């Protein structure tokens, strides 16, 4: 569960940077 929370926070932070977010989305 902690891993999921970490990924969620990571995605939330990446949202600020469209470029990084695009990489996360694949």
UniProtKB/TrEMBL annotation:
<protein>
    <submittedName>
        <fullName>Uncharacterized protein</fullName>
    </submittedName>
</protein>
């Amino acid at each position: 569960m902690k891993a999921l929370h970490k990924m969620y926070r990571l995605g939330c932070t990446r949202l600020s940077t469209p470029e990084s977010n695009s990489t996360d989305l694949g």
